[in-house]
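Reading is simple: each integer encodes one residue's backbone shape. The lines below illustrate:
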Amino acid sequence: MNDLKDNVLDEFKYRERVTAFIDILGFRKRVNESSHDHEKTLRICSALKFLTYDYKKYNDFCNSTDEFVKSGRKVTAFSDSIVISYPKKEETMVFLLLDVMLLQAHLAFLGFMLRGGIVCGKLFHSGNIVFGPALVKAYELESKAAIYPRIIIERKYLEDYNFDMQYLHPKLCEVHPNLKERKHLIHLVKKDNDGLYYVDFLLVCRVEIIEKLLISCDEMLNSTEEPNEISKINWLINYVRSCEELGEKRMPLNGIL
């Protein structure tokens, strides 16, 4: 009996992991509206297809690629939320941000906004079971601090990172071409007016995705009178416009999906 207890305790041992908790904004509202709007039904189906099939294909790709297999990557999706985690290493801190960029870019193209938090901390993540202080902290960042459709990063995440990305394995640049231009984790994030850092997902967006995103923002503005929703949409528009004004290069998605 004691041996069984020890095995169970060992199985459910916390590990230091970098963790992202991500929520699809307005998903429940769209589901409720979809009963009398066929276009919204199609968008929901497309988003779920991405999460359950296309993103699974990306997971399968990662699981068959040596660098990712060794990384200890875990992904769990439930309802309108997603958790992604890796064992805490400087390379995996980059992998996690790139995973988040991919999700944001594809779901933005489908007209869905994401909000989330990324942290370092203790977590148990195996199959569909995920819990721990890191998940609680990431959830609190998403629900209490992020406010807008952005995925924010705790300051400690950036402070713990000193790795030069040019030393990543060359094959990873085939998976994520944007690594060729970016030399440090700080080059994958932006600092907002409130002092919080968030993932700069437009770095991996093609022009047509950015254009689609602006069209979706206009559609969302025209379909709501809720002040909270309007402020979130306007934040996203300002983010896109600020990137355009700076004339930043936008690198194409790599065609994995």
Summary: The chain has a mean pLDDT of 77. Strands lie at 15-24, 74-78, 81-87, 114-126, 129-131, 151-153, 189-191, 197-199. The chain has one domain: 13-201.
